[in-house]
Amino acid sequence: MKIMLIxxxxxxxxxxxxxxxxxxxxxxxxGVATGTRGSLxxxxxxxxxxxxxxxxxxxxxxxxxxxxxxRNLDPLQLIRDSKADxxxxxxxxxxxxxxxxxxxCRAAFASGKHVVLANKGPVALRYANLMGFAGDQYQxxxxxxxxxxxxxxxxxxxxxxxxNGCPISDIRGILNGxxxxxxxxxGDGMNYAEALAQAQQLGYAETDPTxxxxxxxxxxxxxxxxxxxxxxxxxxxxxxxQGITGITQADIASAHAAGERWKLIVxxxxxxxxxxxxxxxxxxxxxxxxxxxxxxxFKTPLLGDVTLIGAGAGRAETAFGVLADLLxxxxxxxx
Amino acid sequence: MKIMLIxxxxxxxxxxxxxxxxxxxxxxxxGVATGTRGSLxxxxxxxxxxxxxxxxxxxxxxxxxxxxxxRNLDPLQLIRDSKADxxxxxxxxxxxxxxxxxxxCRAAFASGKHVVLANKGPVALRYANLMGFAGDQYQxxxxxxxxxxxxxxxxxxxxxxxxNGCPISDIRGILNGxxxxxxxxxGDGMNYAEALAQAQQLGYAETDPTxxxxxxxxxxxxxxxxxxxxxxxxxxxxxxxQGITGITQADIASAHAAGERWKLIVxxxxxxxxxxxxxxxxxxxxxxxxxxxxxxxFKTPLLGDVTLIGAGAGRAETAFGVLADLLxxxxxxxx
Lengths: 335, 335
Description:
The structure is a homodimer.
Chain A: E1 2-6, H1 10-21, E2 28-33, E3 39-41, H2 48-56, E4 70-71, H3 75-81, E5 86-89, H4 101-110, E6 114-117, H5 121-125, H6 127-134, E7 140-141, H7 152-163, E8 170-174, H8 177-187, H9 192-201, H10 210-213, H11 216-230, E9 240-241, H12 249-257, E10 260-269, E11 272-281, E12 294-300, E13 304-310, H13 315-332
Parallel strand pairs in A: 1-2, 1-5, 5-6, 6-7, 9-11
Antiparallel strand pairs in A: 2-3, 3-4, 8-10, 8-12, 10-11, 12-13
């Protein structure tokens, strides 16, 4: 199976790393496109190791010459011209328009390719549209868009709903690692500013942490879950979204004294979604989720609550979600 | 797909209930065998509803006559003679010998049937043997043997190991609901005897609670996990097994004061397994698992710890695990 990568940042490099370590998988990278660091196409397959060496030295131009190698195609041209079976969209998410990733997906379908998204934009903002363009002919996967490689869609969508006809009535989750890390550190005595600074130092939080701490990253994931599980395309202004900036050390201490924990909780039902800090009793499986870890609870009529807890970010972790999608498509195609 | 049930207690009746509610599934019960309440065989398919009515009135003899209906075949005869695709073994588990379930499985393979086990005995005691007799030709599934229908094998064995080549290096779990219920109630102020009495009243604990409270039920599940994930057939005397009868209210209170919780923890590694009460910090996802709920943490090199929390018992919950196995076999057969 031949794949092409749109975007070659943390996730794309993680995918190359995993594939380089598992050559027996029969998944070949034939194309890579970046915004400002060049692009490459080689129908016989690019070397994951040399791709990583090139990008680590700053630009894909450093990839060694090879017969048939084409350089610096723009992404749309690369998508249209490349003989790849799957396009992996792992460029940065745009939560305003979902672009240019959405157009890349359309171009992928139009040129006969399945699509794997680590990019959250199209799945959050234009899911029905995306599935419409894919039609029955093309597969679309997006495991890494929520909880990185922790398999919330493989468990919730594929296993429960599709394979076993077990509906999901309600979803709750801790889907932003940065805020959970900050709340956990505040529980251990830090104030908000110290905890945020530490999260930034560890690479959990961006220099501008607004999207995380104001709840917008979590809201984007709520939109994805609403689309996938309930077929309900929410707009941002239809959700109540509240971050953690209003939580004080006194709030945290008062919760601890009552045997409770503050968590930034995403709630999604067929009727809508919200993001808000909530005090959970220790007996709630989500209350014990600490640090940058993520968690999701599916409420089902047959099995009751089923909770999945695991990594929500990280290079290898996110790349594993993409790889799982690729292998799932490979199985579907019977290869 | 035609199935036969060996055993028609809580689990078997749960399966009949689920199939009765979902006639679109194309899974037909053609045979049912019980120890002392009769057996039935009808190649055209038995009615789930009438099976439940008959057994609830005490004996399968109450099932109405029908052309071709055969009554009171013994289990081995029923297995050998019935035109079923799958045998479901859901009679009570025997942790001494795994019998007679193991011989029933052999007879099933010998007469061309796949096998689904809710019965833990053969999976705990003779897994390699079982898989050897199944060979490449017959499928064996056992989702309901650990955590009822909460999909610990679908997630750990199928998704991580088989489909995605992600090894599991270590497993920890809360796999006995009765003891977790008792420990949770003791945390809320009951003494051991009161908590046990309440567990018995609610149907979580048997009249003789020894297998639960001494850790032997959990040890049986440790043996199953050791077999499935590490190919290591443990004997009971090779495991350190300690129950919860030595835990006092003072122990519980002291753990609470330190922000910790006592849990009966199953640990399984490639080198062996143990069952013992442990004090876990609240930051451990297993610490927040309360009441009769079960949980399992898979340690993986790629994704770190992944924890699954859900029901570990119950009629519909266990039957759902069996149904998921049946649907998985159905997909494998391409029907």
